[in-house]
Design brief:
The complex is a heterodimer.
Chain A: H1 3-20, E1 32-36, H2 61-69, H3 78-81, E2 96-102, E3 109-116, E4 122-126, E5 144-150, E6 153-159, E7 164-167, E8 171-173, E9 178-186, E10 189-197, E11 206-214, H4 251-255, H5 260-263, H6 274-278
Parallel strand pairs in A: 4-5
Antiparallel strand pairs in A: 1-2, 1-11, 2-3, 3-4, 5-6, 6-9, 7-8, 9-10, 10-11
Chain B: H1 2-23, E1 31-33, E2 36-42, E3 45-49, E4 55-60, E5 63-67, H2 75-83, E6 90-94, H3 100-103, H4 106-111, E7 128-132, H5 133-139, E8 157-159, E9 163-168, E10 171-178, E11 186-191, E12 196-200, H6 219-232, E13 244-247, E14 253-254, H7 255-277, H8 282-287, H9 295-298, H10 305-318, H11 321-324
Parallel strand pairs in B: 5-6, 6-7, 7-8, 12-13
Antiparallel strand pairs in B: 1-2, 2-3, 3-4, 4-5, 9-10, 10-11, 11-12, 13-14
Helix pairs in contact in B: 6-7, 7-10
């Protein structure tokens, strides 16, 4: 066999491969059920944080005041009872299902969807290059999201979020906030990195990551929410603490035998070097027993 | 056979594409004319955004009904923008109050429309204009007000009771008076089948509420108006969607947005009331910065937190006991 003839089957095989193989678009498939691994940031899952526990968050003084005036009784107000976690908070602990819309003709992925188990919020991440809506469009708990591939990583930009919270104890996240996420799949592990930028209440971006384990047998359970008035309070009354009247500000810090300063939050409390400073601070003292109303309005 | 397979294939492809088209809303668009932008709210209701207050538009077989008319300068763009969504004549204008950023276009927009006879027939002219009685009195000058408008922009119909009902474009349209809120002539308009409420300046989610005390506005009237919106609104799922609300200024909202805003207004009112109870002067109350935690969201150079605090303070210190309990 001549050298030329010897190369012929290889060339044919190469041509066949090029003609038939699926082009590599670096798109990872996230479809399926994902179980939350629940190994990071205990404060953001389960029962959630205690009141006035603000450590590890880059909040400013205005957000600290929001947190200090917040009363947990706000959740009893009908308009607050069925609020789901917003897109930037939900992945903290919920099970996750993802699926995609595929254009029937081009086979392009038009959109990714996520659904979380807590309250079943469904979210759409548009992949078709559409612009974000104008300023006057409605805001939603999940916001308006667009995605693009950066190598194997799906990067998502979200705007038009409703005003919500950065932590479940009254620390606000404004509707002017934007969120960037990175969806990264490594085998059966999905990592979602969330970066929240809020010009109103954060002094620097708040970055967190969450891991999920592929769970092919997972079935989303329904989570209907019914509004029920269980506390008969005067019409128009909104539970909150007046400035200086919240008796629980040092309670969480004292309970955990830590100084009060870190529990007040701020960007510096996010970084490891702050732990050295904490060692020089006095431990917080438990507040005096509050009145039955706790000082709340 | 080959042909039939091809036809079946085309039909199948079209069906699948159709399903996809249903599941995939059209790209967000920002249509409009000049500085006036059109946004579909839901069913036959649209909102117009531009100079001055927001406009809510009902379109249908009977014609066009508009809630508010923006500024006089924007009127021609308003008319042109409405023509992009309906070729029917404008029949009705409803004013949510008398301020010129909401009524400035009355004369021009009305003139472009067509008169529908009501109980009090009048000769010729364009669209009818409805407002609460005190708003009419401010626009026609029978009550002293900077809002006085040229005669062509005066309301042709008014009401002085709690609610004025009509049926237009296949749905009940309820115009409801909100006493002593932004002014003493406020009305909200509830499109009951479309499930949309035009709130006027009782609800302005992009800024602190403006209390026009000279025209009868009050902080507790604002809170009562916000609570009325919450009473009327029903969310679809997870405290979202369902009844949609077009505010006087700012973006399209739903019940949760009104609730969030109502919470802020109530909390600031409570803080100022507490400081007044401690015998603080206006300057001392301002120095306590009771809006500090909300200024980043709602304050602007033209209407600062201090200005809102002063309006609340004056409203509460001027209020009668009955007005103090109005928000309940």
């Amino acid at each position: 066999m001549s050298a030329k003839r010897a190369w012929r089957p290889i060339a044919i095989a190469a041509a066949w491969t090029l003609a038939t193989v699926t082009p590599a678009f670096a798109q990872v498939d996230f479809s399926g059920g994902w179980g939350a691994r629940l190994h990071e940031d205990n404060l953001e899952r389960g029962g959630g944080p205690e009141m006035n526990e603000f450590e590890g968050l880059p909040i400013n003084a205005a957000d600290r005041m929001r947190g200090d005036s917040w009363s947990a009784s706000l959740w009893t107000v009908p308009e607050h009872q069925c609020i789901p976690h917003p897109a930037d908070y939900g992945p903290n602990f919920s099970q996750l299902v993802m699926w995609k819309d595929v254009d029937a003709v081009t086979k392009d992925v038009v959109a990714w969807h996520t659904e979380l188990s807590w309250m079943n919020p469904v979210r759409t991440i548009w992949m078709d290059g559409r612009p974000h809506p104008p300023a006057w469009a409605p805001h939603t708990w999940q916001g308006f999201s667009t995605g693009k591939w950066e190598g194997d990583m799906l990067t998502v930009e979200t705007t038009h979020l409703k005003p919500a919270y950065i932590r479940r104890n009254g620390l606000a996240r404004s509707e002017k906030a934007t969120v960037r996420e990175h969806f990264i799949r490594n085998g059966d592990i999905l990592t979602i990195v969330t970066i929240v930028t809020d010009p109103v209440y954060l002094t620097e971006p708040y970055i967190k990551s969450r891991n999920f384990q592929l769970d092919p047998g997972y079935r989303m359970t329904p989570y209907p929410c019914s509004v029920d008035v269980e506390i008969d309070r005067p019409a128009g009354e909104i539970p909150h603490y007046l400035p200086g009247a919240n008796p629980f500000i040092s309670e969480a810090a004292a309970k955990h035998k830590m100084p009060l300063d870190p529990a007040r939050g701020g960007a510096e409390t996010m970084y490891p070097e702050y732990m050295e400073r904490m060692k020089t601070m006095p431990t917080a003292t438990m507040p005096a027993q509050p009145a039955a109303s706790g000082g709340a309005r | 056979m080959k042909r039939s397979v091809g036809i079946v294939g085309v039909i199948a492809l079209a069906s699948v594409t159709g399903v996809l088209a249903q599941a995939t809303p059209p790209p967000a668009r920002a249509d409009g004319v000049g500085a006036v932008h059109v946004w579909p709210v839901q069913r036959n209701i649209y909102a117009l955004f531009g100079p001055g207050g927001n406009i809510t538009v009902s379109i249908g077989d009977e014609g066009v009904l508009v809630v508010d008319t923006m500024t006089a300068d924007a009127a021609l763009d308003v008319i042109a923008a409405i023509k992009t969504i309906s070729n029917k004549p404008i029949r009705w204008i409803i004013n949510t109050h008398s301020h010129p950023d909401h009524t400035g276009g009355n004369a021009t927009v009305a003139k472009s429309g067509v008169y529908v006879a009501t109980g009090n027939t009048r000769g010729g002219g364009g669209a009818s204009i409805l407002s609460f009685e005190s708003a009419l009195m401010r626009l026609n000058g029978s009550a002293e007000s900077p809002d006085k408008a040229p005669e062509a922009g005066w309301p042709t119909d008014s009401f002085f009771v709690k609610q004025k009902d009509m049926f237009f474009n296949g749905e009940p349209v309820l115009t409801m008076h909100v006493p002593n809120a932004h002014t003493d002539g406020d009305a909200i308009v509830f499109f009951r089948r479309s499930d949309v409420i035009a709130a006027g300046d009782v609800f302005t989610p992009d800024r602190y509420p403006m209390i026009d005390a000279k025209e009868g506005g009050s902080i507790n009237g604002i809170i009562a108006g916000l609570n009325l919106l919450i009473e009327l609104a029903v969310p679809e799922f997870n405290e979202e969607g369902g009844t949609m609300i077009v505010p006087g200024h700012g973006r399209i909202c739903d019940e949760s947005d009104v609730g969030d805003y109502r919470d802020m207004v109530t909390i600031v009112r409570d803080r100022v009331q507490d400081l007044i109870a401690k015998k603080m002067t206006l300057e001392q109350v301002k120095a306590a910065r009771p809006t500090f935690d909300y200024d980043g969201v709602y304050a602007s150079p033209t209407y600062t937190g201090d200005m809102f605090v002063e309006a609340v303070y004056r409203s509460l210190t001027a209020a009668t006991p009955a007005q103090r309990s109005q928000s309940r």
